[in-house]
Design goal:
GO terms for molecular function: DNA binding. Keywords: DNA-binding, Transcription, Transcription regulation. This protein is of the alpha+beta class. It has helices spanning 26-38, 46-53, 62-74, 96-113, 116-130, 141-168, 172-186, 191-203, 207-225, 231-241; strands at 3-6, 12-15, 18-19, 79-80, 86-87, 94-95. The protein has ten helices and six strands; from the N terminus they run βββαααβββααααααα. It has a four-stranded mixed beta sheet with strand order 3-2-1-6. It has a two-stranded antiparallel ribbon with strand order 4-5. A hairpin with a 5-residue loop joins strand 1 and strand 2. Helix 6 runs parallel beside helix 8 and helix 8 (191-203) packs antiparallel against helix 9 (207-225). The radius of gyration is 22 Å and the shape is elongated.
Length: 242
Amino acid sequence: MEARIQLCGRLVARLGGERVDDRLPGRQGRHLFAYLVVNRLRPTSRAELMDALWPGEVPPAADSALSALLSKLRRIVPIESRPEPQIVLPAHAFVDLEAAFEAVHRAESATRRGAWADAWAPARVALHTASRTFLAGDDAPWIEERRRQLEAVRIGALECVAEVGIGLGGPELDSAIRAGRALTELAPLRESGYRLLMRALDADGNRGEALALYDRLRTTLREQLGATPSHAARELHKAILG
């Protein structure tokens, strides 16, 4: 059975070539389906599932409500119940969240080797997925945790895009500059984004803007953290100054 599941942005599920997300039983059904997919490689206890579906305080009838939801989901997708509930998807199933984690890992590995061409595609795959909100429109503690993990993927992908752009040079410098600007906005206290953007700007001939960015970094760290730029940032600043 072919399975393609999108959890980032709008939830979309295709099983056996058929779109089934519109058959999920309401908000709780979507949450249960997504939770089982995210944790598909291991059984999940009923207590864990109830905590995910009813965070804060589990209602007295939660166990029977969970049984009803699982029963409805089994009409759509195979779910084993022994020893604990576990969704059954093909080994080759595509889940966009998993693909993003795998892609950023490949991109970071290739970037560390300086294999810019090998890092180019996976970095963009990871960035494309991580730029969307996990289960957009829904909220729960476990959803927020996944969103934080996805934000880390986005940051890692942006760093790879910037490194690749600097490494390849030429037209790719524009991508590096855009990625660097996105990093400084997304994580304004994370120094790596500033250093990447400084390098990209300098490589593109914008020495003055690169130096001004260092001043912005220094001011931000001092005002927000009472800290100073790292040795690496100071050395980069000196190199750009010439």
